[in-house]
């Protein structure tokens, strides 16, 4: 049975980053946007084993991971997503160090053009997301 969804998730990462940094950033972003997307109609399916133990809670929406050429491309997509009203969360390099409060202060004190982007996760209409991500490719 094919599930047809009116929305999807798209993660875009800076291919130049190490795999462990990408995995860490995507885990944080997926949890955050998944929580926020509940208010936007994101739906999930619970999977249980024969004994009733929960095995997984997965989104019903497609989720793809793309690679960007560099942090600058992520910055551009993030700005474009904001102008189009697309739900989007970003993971920045300074989010790896310090306490959450120190990270917030550092981000607030830095001009958007100076942030080093690691990853983005977007949630929205597939046609709009395709327009935002047309210059990226599937992460290999």
Helix/strand layout:
Layout: E1 8-14, H1 19-37, E2 44-48, E3 54-59, E4 63-68, H2 71-83, E5 87-92, H3 100-108, E6 117-124, H4 126-133, E7 137-138
Parallel strand pairs: 1-4
Antiparallel strand pairs: 1-6, 2-3, 4-7, 5-6
Structural notes for this entry:
This protein is α+β, with helices and mostly antiparallel strands. It has a single domain, classed as 3-Layer(aba) Sandwich (Bit1). The chain is 35% helix and 29% strand. It has 4 helices and 7 strands, in the order E-H-E-E-E-H-E-H-E-H-E. The protein has a 5-stranded mixed beta sheet, with helices on both faces. Strands 2-3 form a two-stranded antiparallel sheet. It starts with 7 loop residues before the first strand and ends with a strand.
What key attributes describe this structure?
4 helices; globular; alpha+beta; 140 residues
Q: What helical percentage do the residues reach?
A: 25-40%
Strand order of the largest sheet: 5-6-1-4-7
Under CATH, the homologous superfamily reads Bit1
User: Which geometry do the CA atoms define?
Assistant: globular
């Amino acid at each position: 049975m094919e599930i047809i969804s009116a929305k999807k998730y798209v993660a875009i990462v800076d291919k130049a980053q190490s795999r462990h940094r990408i995995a860490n950033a995507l885990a944080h972003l997926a949890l955050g946007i998944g929580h926020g997307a509940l208010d936007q109609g994101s739906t999930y399916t619970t999977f249980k084993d024969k004994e009733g133990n929960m095995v997984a809670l997965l989104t019903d929406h497609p989720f793809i991971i793309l690679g960007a050429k560099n942090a600058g491309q992520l910055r551009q997509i993030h700005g474009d997503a904001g102008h189009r009203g697309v739900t989007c969360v970003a993971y920045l390099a300074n989010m790896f160090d310090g306490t959450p409060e120190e990270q917030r202060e550092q981000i607030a004190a830095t001009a958007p053009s100076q942030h080093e982007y690691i990853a983005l996760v977007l949630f929205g209409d597939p046609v709009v997301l395709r327009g935002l991500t047309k210059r990226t490719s599937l992460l290999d």
